[in-house]
Specification:
The protein is mainly α. It is built from 20 helices and 5 strands. α14 crosses α19 and α16 crosses α18. The termini are far apart.
C-alpha cells in the first residue's frame, strides 16, 4: 500500500472522520485509522496527457507493480516462543512472584531447552540455513556451547534486601538467544513469516520435545514449582482465563518487524483454554527432557505443603476452621506430608507425582466423608441436630449445619458456573491483528474484517449490547466470605455436635465410612479408577463438582485422588479384600 500518492485526497473518512489515507494495490483509497476502503480510485492528474495505456496503469497498477511478500526481521520460531515466555514472566512478576523466577530460573530452563533441542547453545544448531550456524562466531565462546547452563546454584531463595530485588527486576533482556543475524535475506521462508516456520511445522523428530503455546505454561509452572512460589497450577490456569497472564493471541504483541503469516499462524494461534491434566503432563515431560535434578524440598513451611493448602481451600470453600486439625491428622496418617513424597524428582521413576492443589482438596473431601458420610442420609440427620442446637442455643459458636452450607454454596456455584459458561461461549478468539496465509489472501482478509466491523456496528445500534465486564483483579482467593454480608460465613462455626469426646481424644458421631473405589485398575491402565455420577450420592457429587469448579478440573480427576488417599488411609481394608479375592480364586481352582 502506498501513502505518499494519497496526499491529495483530503476527504474525511465516513467511518471515523479521520484524514489519513493510503492507496491499495488496486488503486483505491483506504483509511489508515479504521481500514475503511472506499470505491474512489486515484484520478489522472492531466487530461491532456491522457492515453489508454496510462489509464490502464493508473487503475490496474497493482498488476504491473505487484508487491512482494512483506519482510521484516529474519526470526525463528523459537524466538517467537521466547517472546511469549518473556511476556508471561513479566505477568508473573506483576502478580508478586520473586524476580529470580524470570532472571534465573525460567531463563536457565529456556537455555537448557534450546541446548537440548539443538536450536542454540550448541555447535550445529538445527535452525541454521545452508548448514551455517545461526550463532555468530564471535559469540561462540560466550554462549556456553555444549555445556550445561548454570542453573542449580544460588536460586533456592529470593533476595533479602529490596535493593537487590530491584536490581534483579531491572534486568529486562535476560531471556535472549545468542547473537542471531537480523538482516533480510532470500532464505526467509516463502510459506511463513519466520525463517523455519514451514520446516518447524513438519518436524517430527524423535527425542525432540516440540515447543507449543501450551508448553509455555508448562515452563511457567515448572519455574513456579522450582521456586516454591505461592501459585498452584490451578491458580495459574485461572489467571490465564482471567487475562492476567498472556496466552490467547499472544502473537499480536510481537514487534511489528516480526512478520507472522502462513504456517506461523498454526504454530502460534490457539482457540482453546488450557486443561489442567494437559499442562501437568507436559510439565513432567519437559522436566524429563531437560534432565533436571531433584527439585527443592517441599517442607512444612512451604506453601505447597498439604497443611497450608488445606487451610487455603477450607477458607475458599467456606468450611469451619476446626476441620483443619482433622485434615492435618489425615495428612500425617497417610504420609502425604513427607518431604520425600512431596518433592518432585524427574530423574527417579515414581509411579505417582503429586498434584499439590488436587491432593489438598481431596484430603478435605475425605474429612467431609469422615464427618458426614455423604450418603444422602447421615449428613441430613446431623444437619437436623445442628439446626435444633442453633435454634435453642444462641450463645457461643453456632454448630455447623451441612444442609444450610449445601444450599448456600449450591446457589452461588450455579451462578458462577453459568457466568463462566456464558463467558466462554461469548469469548472472541479472533485477534485484533489481521492474519493471512499468503499475500494473495491479504486483500480478502482486509475486506472481510471491514464487513465484520460494519455489521457489528449496525447490530450494536439495533440491540442494546451489555457493557464489557471489568477485568477481575488478581487474587489467590476466588471468594471472600468474611467480607460478603449477604452470605453466611461458616469459618467460625463449631463441630461440637458432630465430634464426641472420648477421653482426651475426639471421635466422630458418624462411625461408618464407604470407600469411593472398591477395586483399582491394573498398573498398565492409564487411569486409576472410573467415575460415573449415577453410582454415587447427590451430596458426594456436589462436593466433587464444587471443588472441581474451584480448581478448573474434571470431577473424575478429584475422585481418583480421593480414592488414592482412601487406599492409604484404609489400607487394611484393601488388604483384607485382596486376600479374600485370592482365597476365592484358590477355592475355584
Amino acid at each position: 500500500m502506498e501513502t505518499e500518492e494519497a496526499r491529495d485526497f483530503n476527504e474525511r473518512c465516513t467511518q471515523c472522520a479521520a484524514v489519513s489515507w493510503g492507496l491499495t494495490d488496486e488503486g483505491t483509497y483506504y483509511c489508515r485509522s479504521c481500514l475503511n476502503v472506499t470505491e474512489r480510485h486515484k484520478e489522472v492528474e492531466s487530461i491532456a496527457d491522457f492515453t489508454p495505456n496510462t489509464k490502464i496503469q493508473a487503475i490496474n497498477r497493482g498488476l504491473k507493480k505487484k508487491r512482494k511478500l512483506e519482510k521484516g526481521w529474519e526470526w525463528y520460531v523459537c524466538e517467537g516462543f521466547q517472546y511469549i515466555l518473556y511476556q508471561q514472566a513479566e505477568a508473573l512478576l506483576a502478580l508478586g512472584v520473586c524476580p529470580k523466577l524470570k532472571d534465573e530460573v525460567l531463563h536457565n530452563f529456556w537455555k537448557r531447552y534450546l541446548q537440548k533441542s539443538k536450536q542454540a547453545y550448541c555447535r550445529k544448531p538445527i535452525c541454521s540455513n545452508d548448514n551455517k550456524s545461526v550463532v555468530s562466531d564471535s559469540n561462540l565462546s560466550l554462549s556456553g556451547l555444549d555445556s550445561e547452563p548454570e542453573l542449580f546454584s544460588n536460586i533456592y531463595s529470593c533476595p533479602v534486601s529490596e535493593s537487590e530485588a530491584e536490581s534483579q527486576s531491572d534486568v529486562s533482556g535476560r531471556l535472549i538467544l545468542p547473537n542471531i543475524k537480523t538482516t533480510q535475506s532470500e532464505t526467509t521462508s516463502v510459506c511463513s513469516g519466520s525463517v523455519d516456520g514451514g520446516e518447524y511445522s513438519r518436524q517430527k523428530k524423535k527425542g525432540i520435545l516440540k515447543m507449543t503455546v501450551p508448553m509455555t505454561l508448562a515452563f511457567c509452572y515448572m519455574s513456579l514449582l522450582w521456586q516454591r512460589a505461592t501459585i498452584t497450577l490451578s491458580d495459574l490456569l485461572r489467571f490465564v482465563e482471567d487475562g492476567h497472564i498472556p496466552y490467547v493471541n499472544t502473537y499480536q504483541n510481537f514487534p511489528e518487524e516480526m512478520k507472522l503469516y502462513g504456517r506461523d499462524i498454526k504454530i502460534f494461534s490457539i482457540e482453546s483454554w488450557p486443561v489442567y491434566e494437559d499442562i501437568y503432563e507436559k510439565m513432567i515431560e519437559l522436566a524429563k527432557f531437560l534432565d533436571l535434578p531433584r527439585f527443592p524440598d517441599i517442607t512444612e513451611n512451604c506453601f505447597l505443603h498439604p497443611d497450608t493448602l488445606c487451610m487455603k481451600y477450607l477458607m475458599e470453600a467456606n468450611l469451619p476452621d476446626e476441620m483443619h486439625s482433622l485434615t492435618c491428622q489425615v495428612t500425617r496418617m497417610t504420609g502425604l506430608g513427607e518431604v520425600t513424597f512431596l518433592t518432585f524428582d524427574p530423574i527417579t521413576e515414581k509411579r505417582r507425582i503429586v498434584k499439590y492443589d488436587v491432593q489438598a482438596v481431596a484430603i478435605i473431601v475425605v474429612v467431609l466423608k469422615l464427618l458426614f458420610l455423604l450418603n444422602d442420609n447421615v449428613e441430613w440427620s446431623l444437619s437436623n441436630l445442628a439446626q435444633e442446637n442453633n435454634e435453642n442455643h444462641h450463645e457461643g459458636k453456632p454448630c455447623f449445619d451441612f444442609r444450610k452450607w449445601y444450599q448456600i454454596m449450591k446457589k452461588i456455584i450455579d451462578e458462577k458456573q453459568q457466568k463462566q459458561e456464558e463467558f466462554r461461549a461469548k469469548y472472541l478468539w479472533k485477534s485484533d491483528k489481521l492474519l493471512y496465509y499468503s499475500s494473495v489472501d491479504r486483500s480478502v482478509v482486509y475486506k472481510r474484517r471491514r464487513m465484520v466491523t460494519d455489521l457489528q456496528k449496525q447490530f450494536s445500534q439495533l440491540v442494546d449490547s451489555a457493557p464489557n465486564p471489568e477485568k477481575k483483579k488478581p487474587s489467590s482467593f476466588q471468594f471472600n466470605w468474611a467480607k460478603d454480608q449477604n452470605t453466611t460465613c461458616f469459618h467460625g462455626h463449631s463441630l461440637q455436635k458432630i465430634l464426641q469426646k472420648k477421653g482426651k481424644s475426639l471421635k466422630t458421631l458418624n462411625s461408618q465410612y464407604w470407600l469411593s473405589t472398591q477395586k483399582f485398575c491394573k498398573s498398565y491402565c492409564k487411569h486409576v479408577t472410573t467415575y460415573e455420577e449415577s453410582n454415587f450420592s447427590v451430596s458426594y457429587q456436589f462436593v466433587l463438582n464444587f471443588f472441581s469448579f474451584l480448581l478448573r478440573i474434571k470431577a473424575s480427576l478429584l475422585h481418583e485422588e480421593v480414592s488414592l488417599i482412601e487406599k492409604r488411609l484404609f489400607y487394611k481394608k484393601y488388604e483384607n479384600k485382596s486376600k479374600a479375592s485370592r482365597s476365592k480364586k484358590a477355592r475355584r481352582s
